[in-house]
Write a structure and sequence with these properties.
The chain is 84% helix and 0% strand. With 379 residues, the chain is an all-alpha fold.
Length: 379
Protein backbone atom coordinates (compact mmCIF):
# COMPACT_ATOMS: atom_id res chain seq x y z
CA UNK A 1 0.00 0.00 0.00
CA UNK A 2 2.83 2.35 0.97
CA UNK A 3 4.65 1.56 -2.28
CA UNK A 4 1.50 2.29 -4.32
CA UNK A 5 1.03 5.57 -2.49
CA UNK A 6 4.62 6.48 -3.12
CA UNK A 7 4.25 5.78 -6.85
CA UNK A 8 1.05 7.82 -6.98
CA UNK A 9 2.72 10.72 -5.22
CA UNK A 10 5.59 10.54 -7.70
CA UNK A 11 3.13 10.64 -10.61
CA UNK A 12 1.33 13.62 -9.12
CA UNK A 13 4.64 15.38 -8.54
CA UNK A 14 5.68 14.72 -12.14
CA UNK A 15 2.35 16.06 -13.38
CA UNK A 16 2.81 19.17 -11.23
CA UNK A 17 6.29 19.70 -12.62
CA UNK A 18 4.92 19.26 -16.14
CA UNK A 19 2.11 21.70 -15.43
CA UNK A 20 4.62 24.22 -14.15
CA UNK A 21 6.88 23.62 -17.14
CA UNK A 22 4.10 24.10 -19.73
CA UNK A 23 3.58 27.85 -19.12
CA UNK A 24 7.34 28.36 -19.00
CA UNK A 25 7.72 26.58 -22.34
CA UNK A 26 4.94 28.68 -23.84
CA UNK A 27 6.60 31.84 -22.57
CA UNK A 28 9.91 30.77 -24.11
CA UNK A 29 8.19 30.06 -27.42
CA UNK A 30 6.42 33.41 -27.28
CA UNK A 31 9.69 35.23 -26.57
CA UNK A 32 11.43 33.34 -29.38
CA UNK A 33 8.59 34.25 -31.75
CA UNK A 34 8.80 37.92 -30.76
CA UNK A 35 12.57 37.91 -31.27
CA UNK A 36 12.15 36.28 -34.69
CA UNK A 37 9.53 38.82 -35.70
CA UNK A 38 11.66 41.68 -34.45
CA UNK A 39 14.69 40.39 -36.33
CA UNK A 40 12.65 39.97 -39.51
CA UNK A 41 11.37 43.53 -39.12
CA UNK A 42 14.90 44.88 -38.71
CA UNK A 43 16.07 43.02 -41.83
CA UNK A 44 13.06 44.28 -43.78
CA UNK A 45 13.65 47.88 -42.71
CA UNK A 46 17.33 47.57 -43.69
CA UNK A 47 16.33 46.23 -47.10
CA UNK A 48 13.83 49.05 -47.56
CA UNK A 49 16.46 51.63 -46.60
CA UNK A 50 18.94 50.13 -49.06
CA UNK A 51 16.36 50.28 -51.85
CA UNK A 52 15.53 53.86 -50.85
CA UNK A 53 19.18 54.96 -51.13
CA UNK A 54 19.69 53.10 -54.43
CA UNK A 55 16.50 54.66 -55.83
CA UNK A 56 17.55 58.20 -54.89
CA UNK A 57 20.99 57.71 -56.40
CA UNK A 58 19.50 56.29 -59.61
CA UNK A 59 17.03 59.16 -59.93
CA UNK A 60 19.76 61.72 -59.35
CA UNK A 61 21.93 60.01 -62.00
CA UNK A 62 19.08 59.83 -64.51
CA UNK A 63 17.69 63.32 -63.83
CA UNK A 64 19.49 64.76 -66.86
CA UNK A 65 17.24 62.68 -69.09
CA UNK A 66 14.12 64.11 -67.46
CA UNK A 67 14.55 67.65 -68.72
CA UNK A 68 13.49 66.91 -72.36
CA UNK A 69 10.56 64.86 -71.01
CA UNK A 70 9.50 67.69 -68.69
CA UNK A 71 9.82 70.14 -71.56
CA UNK A 72 7.53 67.98 -73.70
CA UNK A 73 5.03 68.02 -70.84
CA UNK A 74 5.60 71.78 -70.69
CA UNK A 75 6.60 71.60 -67.03
CA UNK A 76 8.30 74.92 -66.47
CA UNK A 77 7.84 77.17 -63.46
CA UNK A 78 6.13 76.62 -60.11
CA UNK A 79 2.56 76.58 -61.47
CA UNK A 80 3.22 73.71 -63.86
CA UNK A 81 5.26 71.92 -61.20
CA UNK A 82 2.32 72.00 -58.76
CA UNK A 83 0.10 70.33 -61.34
CA UNK A 84 2.82 67.82 -62.19
CA UNK A 85 3.33 66.77 -58.56
CA UNK A 86 -0.41 66.71 -57.89
CA UNK A 87 -1.24 64.42 -60.84
CA UNK A 88 1.84 62.23 -60.22
CA UNK A 89 0.61 61.63 -56.65
CA UNK A 90 -2.78 60.56 -58.03
CA UNK A 91 -1.04 58.14 -60.37
CA UNK A 92 1.05 56.40 -57.69
CA UNK A 93 -1.61 56.88 -54.95
CA UNK A 94 1.00 58.33 -52.60
CA UNK A 95 2.76 61.63 -52.08
CA UNK A 96 6.06 60.53 -50.54
CA UNK A 97 7.54 58.89 -53.67
CA UNK A 98 6.62 61.98 -55.70
CA UNK A 99 8.22 64.31 -53.15
CA UNK A 100 11.39 62.22 -53.08
CA UNK A 101 11.45 62.21 -56.90
CA UNK A 102 11.14 66.00 -56.92
CA UNK A 103 14.13 66.30 -54.58
CA UNK A 104 16.12 63.96 -56.83
CA UNK A 105 15.23 66.03 -59.90
CA UNK A 106 16.44 69.13 -58.05
CA UNK A 107 19.70 67.42 -57.10
CA UNK A 108 20.18 66.30 -60.70
CA UNK A 109 19.53 69.75 -62.16
CA UNK A 110 16.21 68.98 -63.86
CA UNK A 111 14.23 71.19 -61.43
CA UNK A 112 14.96 74.61 -60.01
CA UNK A 113 14.46 75.05 -56.24
CA UNK A 114 11.13 76.79 -56.86
CA UNK A 115 9.94 74.04 -59.20
CA UNK A 116 11.00 71.33 -56.77
CA UNK A 117 9.23 73.11 -53.91
CA UNK A 118 6.06 73.46 -55.98
CA UNK A 119 6.15 69.81 -57.12
CA UNK A 120 6.55 68.65 -53.50
CA UNK A 121 3.59 70.84 -52.52
CA UNK A 122 1.60 69.34 -55.39
CA UNK A 123 2.47 65.84 -54.20
CA UNK A 124 0.91 66.68 -50.84
CA UNK A 125 -2.23 67.98 -52.53
CA UNK A 126 -2.69 64.66 -54.30
CA UNK A 127 -1.56 62.35 -51.50
CA UNK A 128 -4.87 62.24 -49.61
CA UNK A 129 -6.80 61.09 -52.67
CA UNK A 130 -6.16 57.48 -51.64
CA UNK A 131 -8.18 58.13 -48.47
CA UNK A 132 -11.20 59.18 -50.51
CA UNK A 133 -10.70 56.22 -52.85
CA UNK A 134 -10.70 53.74 -49.95
CA UNK A 135 -13.81 55.32 -48.46
CA UNK A 136 -15.55 55.18 -51.84
CA UNK A 137 -14.67 51.49 -52.33
CA UNK A 138 -16.00 50.61 -48.87
CA UNK A 139 -19.15 52.57 -49.70
CA UNK A 140 -19.66 50.56 -52.90
CA UNK A 141 -19.08 47.28 -51.03
CA UNK A 142 -22.25 47.83 -49.05
CA UNK A 143 -21.20 50.01 -46.12
CA UNK A 144 -23.58 52.78 -47.11
CA UNK A 145 -22.40 55.18 -44.43
CA UNK A 146 -21.13 58.55 -45.67
CA UNK A 147 -18.57 58.65 -42.86
CA UNK A 148 -15.89 56.82 -44.83
CA UNK A 149 -16.35 59.22 -47.74
CA UNK A 150 -16.39 62.17 -45.34
CA UNK A 151 -12.98 61.26 -43.92
CA UNK A 152 -11.47 61.39 -47.42
CA UNK A 153 -13.19 64.67 -48.27
CA UNK A 154 -12.14 66.26 -44.97
CA UNK A 155 -8.54 65.07 -45.45
CA UNK A 156 -8.44 66.65 -48.90
CA UNK A 157 -10.09 69.90 -47.75
CA UNK A 158 -7.70 70.27 -44.82
CA UNK A 159 -4.73 69.63 -47.11
CA UNK A 160 -5.92 72.12 -49.72
CA UNK A 161 -6.64 74.88 -47.19
CA UNK A 162 -3.32 74.52 -45.37
CA UNK A 163 -1.00 73.61 -48.25
CA UNK A 164 -2.34 76.41 -50.46
CA UNK A 165 -1.28 79.31 -48.20
CA UNK A 166 1.92 77.44 -47.28
CA UNK A 167 2.76 77.18 -50.99
CA UNK A 168 2.65 80.95 -51.47
CA UNK A 169 4.53 81.63 -48.23
CA UNK A 170 7.17 79.04 -49.08
CA UNK A 171 7.79 80.43 -52.57
CA UNK A 172 8.10 83.91 -51.08
CA UNK A 173 10.47 82.55 -48.43
CA UNK A 174 12.65 80.89 -51.08
CA UNK A 175 12.78 84.12 -53.10
CA UNK A 176 13.63 86.28 -50.05
CA UNK A 177 15.91 83.71 -48.45
CA UNK A 178 14.18 83.81 -45.06
CA UNK A 179 15.40 80.35 -44.04
CA UNK A 180 18.76 80.44 -45.82
CA UNK A 181 20.68 80.96 -42.54
CA UNK A 182 19.52 77.49 -41.49
CA UNK A 183 22.14 75.40 -43.26
CA UNK A 184 22.81 71.71 -43.15
CA UNK A 185 25.57 69.99 -45.06
CA UNK A 186 25.54 66.22 -45.25
CA UNK A 187 28.76 64.84 -43.73
CA UNK A 188 31.06 63.57 -46.44
CA UNK A 189 31.46 60.31 -44.55
CA UNK A 190 27.72 59.60 -44.93
CA UNK A 191 27.65 60.16 -48.68
CA UNK A 192 30.92 58.32 -49.26
CA UNK A 193 29.72 55.36 -47.21
CA UNK A 194 26.45 55.24 -49.15
CA UNK A 195 28.34 55.45 -52.45
CA UNK A 196 30.77 52.74 -51.43
CA UNK A 197 28.05 50.39 -50.21
CA UNK A 198 25.31 50.95 -52.79
CA UNK A 199 26.66 53.20 -55.54
CA UNK A 200 27.39 50.18 -57.72
CA UNK A 201 23.68 49.68 -58.35
CA UNK A 202 23.05 53.06 -60.01
CA UNK A 203 26.38 52.75 -61.84
CA UNK A 204 25.24 49.42 -63.27
CA UNK A 205 21.92 50.92 -64.36
CA UNK A 206 23.52 53.98 -65.98
CA UNK A 207 26.00 51.77 -67.85
CA UNK A 208 23.19 49.80 -69.47
CA UNK A 209 20.27 52.26 -69.78
CA UNK A 210 19.70 55.78 -71.11
CA UNK A 211 19.27 58.54 -68.53
CA UNK A 212 15.47 58.66 -68.70
CA UNK A 213 15.23 54.89 -68.23
CA UNK A 214 17.57 55.13 -65.22
CA UNK A 215 15.24 57.76 -63.77
CA UNK A 216 12.25 55.49 -64.39
CA UNK A 217 14.02 52.56 -62.76
CA UNK A 218 14.78 54.78 -59.79
CA UNK A 219 11.10 55.69 -59.44
CA UNK A 220 10.12 52.00 -59.52
CA UNK A 221 12.77 51.18 -56.92
CA UNK A 222 11.50 54.04 -54.76
CA UNK A 223 7.96 52.65 -54.90
CA UNK A 224 9.36 49.22 -54.02
CA UNK A 225 11.22 50.67 -51.04
CA UNK A 226 8.03 52.22 -49.66
CA UNK A 227 6.24 48.90 -50.15
CA UNK A 228 8.98 47.14 -48.19
CA UNK A 229 8.75 49.72 -45.42
CA UNK A 230 4.98 49.20 -45.26
CA UNK A 231 5.51 45.49 -44.63
CA UNK A 232 7.88 46.20 -41.76
CA UNK A 233 5.82 48.89 -40.06
CA UNK A 234 2.84 48.30 -37.74
CA UNK A 235 -0.36 47.23 -39.46
CA UNK A 236 -2.60 49.87 -37.95
CA UNK A 237 -5.92 48.72 -39.36
CA UNK A 238 -5.44 45.28 -37.81
CA UNK A 239 -4.95 46.99 -34.46
CA UNK A 240 -8.03 49.20 -34.76
CA UNK A 241 -9.43 48.20 -31.36
CA UNK A 242 -6.33 49.48 -29.59
CA UNK A 243 -6.37 52.66 -31.66
CA UNK A 244 -10.04 53.15 -30.76
CA UNK A 245 -9.13 53.28 -27.08
CA UNK A 246 -6.40 55.80 -27.82
CA UNK A 247 -8.78 58.02 -29.79
CA UNK A 248 -11.25 58.02 -26.90
CA UNK A 249 -8.52 59.49 -24.72
CA UNK A 250 -7.56 62.08 -27.35
CA UNK A 251 -10.68 64.20 -27.58
CA UNK A 252 -8.84 67.53 -27.50
CA UNK A 253 -7.52 68.96 -30.73
CA UNK A 254 -3.87 69.45 -29.58
CA UNK A 255 -3.69 65.77 -28.68
CA UNK A 256 -5.28 64.72 -31.98
CA UNK A 257 -2.71 66.91 -33.76
CA UNK A 258 0.11 65.16 -31.88
CA UNK A 259 -1.49 61.79 -32.64
CA UNK A 260 -1.41 62.60 -36.37
CA UNK A 261 2.27 63.49 -36.11
CA UNK A 262 3.22 60.34 -34.18
CA UNK A 263 1.23 57.87 -36.31
CA UNK A 264 2.65 59.35 -39.51
CA UNK A 265 6.19 59.23 -38.13
CA UNK A 266 5.56 55.56 -37.27
CA UNK A 267 4.17 54.63 -40.68
CA UNK A 268 6.30 57.06 -42.75
CA UNK A 269 3.23 57.65 -44.94
CA UNK A 270 0.43 60.18 -44.61
CA UNK A 271 -1.64 58.07 -47.00
CA UNK A 272 -1.47 55.09 -44.63
CA UNK A 273 -1.84 57.04 -41.39
CA UNK A 274 -4.92 58.92 -42.63
CA UNK A 275 -6.46 55.99 -44.52
CA UNK A 276 -6.65 54.04 -41.26
CA UNK A 277 -9.22 56.61 -40.13
CA UNK A 278 -11.73 55.35 -42.71
CA UNK A 279 -12.59 51.99 -41.06
CA UNK A 280 -12.44 53.66 -37.65
CA UNK A 281 -14.98 56.26 -38.78
CA UNK A 282 -17.22 53.58 -40.30
CA UNK A 283 -17.26 51.75 -36.96
CA UNK A 284 -18.02 54.95 -35.06
CA UNK A 285 -14.71 55.05 -33.20
CA UNK A 286 -13.94 58.64 -34.20
CA UNK A 287 -16.02 61.68 -35.11
CA UNK A 288 -15.52 63.82 -38.16
CA UNK A 289 -14.15 66.79 -36.22
CA UNK A 290 -11.34 64.56 -34.91
CA UNK A 291 -10.03 64.21 -38.45
CA UNK A 292 -9.11 67.89 -38.90
CA UNK A 293 -6.28 68.30 -36.34
CA UNK A 294 -5.13 64.73 -36.99
CA UNK A 295 -4.64 65.43 -40.71
CA UNK A 296 -2.86 68.70 -39.93
CA UNK A 297 -0.33 66.86 -37.79
CA UNK A 298 0.05 64.10 -40.38
CA UNK A 299 0.68 66.62 -43.16
CA UNK A 300 3.65 68.04 -41.25
CA UNK A 301 5.23 64.74 -40.19
CA UNK A 302 4.98 63.30 -43.69
CA UNK A 303 7.87 65.53 -44.83
CA UNK A 304 10.35 63.60 -42.67
CA UNK A 305 11.14 61.04 -45.37
CA UNK A 306 11.49 63.84 -47.94
CA UNK A 307 13.88 65.63 -45.58
CA UNK A 308 15.83 62.38 -45.29
CA UNK A 309 16.01 62.22 -49.09
CA UNK A 310 17.39 65.76 -49.17
CA UNK A 311 20.03 64.88 -46.57
CA UNK A 312 21.07 61.68 -48.37
CA UNK A 313 21.40 63.51 -51.67
CA UNK A 314 23.82 65.85 -49.95
CA UNK A 315 22.44 69.16 -51.17
CA UNK A 316 21.97 72.14 -48.86
CA UNK A 317 19.58 73.67 -51.41
CA UNK A 318 17.39 70.57 -51.29
CA UNK A 319 17.42 70.72 -47.50
CA UNK A 320 16.25 74.35 -47.54
CA UNK A 321 13.47 73.51 -50.01
CA UNK A 322 12.06 70.74 -47.82
CA UNK A 323 12.56 72.78 -44.66
CA UNK A 324 10.44 75.56 -46.18
CA UNK A 325 7.68 73.03 -46.85
CA UNK A 326 7.69 71.83 -43.24
CA UNK A 327 7.96 75.27 -41.63
CA UNK A 328 5.19 76.96 -43.58
CA UNK A 329 2.73 74.04 -43.47
CA UNK A 330 3.31 73.92 -39.70
CA UNK A 331 2.90 77.70 -39.38
CA UNK A 332 -0.39 77.76 -41.29
CA UNK A 333 -1.77 74.69 -39.46
CA UNK A 334 -0.86 75.94 -35.98
CA UNK A 335 -2.27 79.40 -36.72
CA UNK A 336 -5.60 77.85 -37.67
CA UNK A 337 -5.63 75.52 -34.66
CA UNK A 338 -4.87 78.32 -32.21
CA UNK A 339 -6.57 81.38 -33.67
CA UNK A 340 -9.38 80.32 -36.01
CA UNK A 341 -10.30 76.72 -35.30
CA UNK A 342 -14.02 77.22 -34.67
CA UNK A 343 -14.90 78.95 -37.97
CA UNK A 344 -12.44 76.75 -39.86
CA UNK A 345 -13.97 73.55 -38.48
CA UNK A 346 -17.46 74.76 -39.39
CA UNK A 347 -16.35 75.57 -42.94
CA UNK A 348 -14.59 72.23 -43.50
CA UNK A 349 -17.32 70.05 -41.95
CA UNK A 350 -20.07 71.99 -43.71
CA UNK A 351 -18.35 71.57 -47.07
CA UNK A 352 -17.79 67.86 -46.40
CA UNK A 353 -21.49 67.42 -45.56
CA UNK A 354 -22.46 69.13 -48.81
CA UNK A 355 -20.08 67.01 -50.88
CA UNK A 356 -21.29 63.71 -49.39
CA UNK A 357 -24.99 64.63 -49.34
CA UNK A 358 -25.69 63.74 -52.99
CA UNK A 359 -23.93 61.76 -55.72
CA UNK A 360 -24.06 64.81 -57.99
CA UNK A 361 -22.21 66.87 -55.36
CA UNK A 362 -19.55 64.18 -55.09
CA UNK A 363 -19.23 64.10 -58.89
CA UNK A 364 -18.66 67.87 -58.95
CA UNK A 365 -16.03 67.58 -56.23
CA UNK A 366 -14.19 64.74 -57.99
CA UNK A 367 -14.30 66.56 -61.33
CA UNK A 368 -12.86 69.70 -59.76
CA UNK A 369 -9.95 67.96 -58.01
CA UNK A 370 -8.95 66.36 -61.32
CA UNK A 371 -9.55 69.45 -63.47
CA UNK A 372 -7.53 71.86 -61.30
CA UNK A 373 -4.16 70.02 -61.51
CA UNK A 374 -4.71 69.42 -65.23
CA UNK A 375 -5.31 73.13 -65.67
CA UNK A 376 -2.20 74.00 -63.65
CA UNK A 377 -0.11 71.66 -65.78
CA UNK A 378 -1.51 73.12 -68.99
CA UNK A 379 -1.08 76.80 -68.09
Amino acid sequence: MAAGATEREAELAAEAVGADAAPAARRRRAVALQVARGSARVVTVAAGLALFVIALDAMKTGAAGARPFLERLDVGGPVNAVGFGWLFAYFVLSGSPVAATSVSLLAGGAFTPEESFAAIAGSRLGASFIVLAVGFLLYLRGRRSPDGLAVGVIALLVTYTTQGPALFLGLLSLERGWLDPVRFETPASVTSLADAALGWASDALSARLPDLAVLGAGVLLLLASFSVFDRALPQLEAEAEGIRRVFRALERRPLMFIMGVLVTLTTMSVALSVTVLVPLALKGYIRREHVIPYVMGANIATFIDTLAAAVLLGGSVAFIVVLNEMVWVAAVSLTILIAAYGPYRGLVLGTARWVTARPTHMAVFLASIVAVPLLLLAV
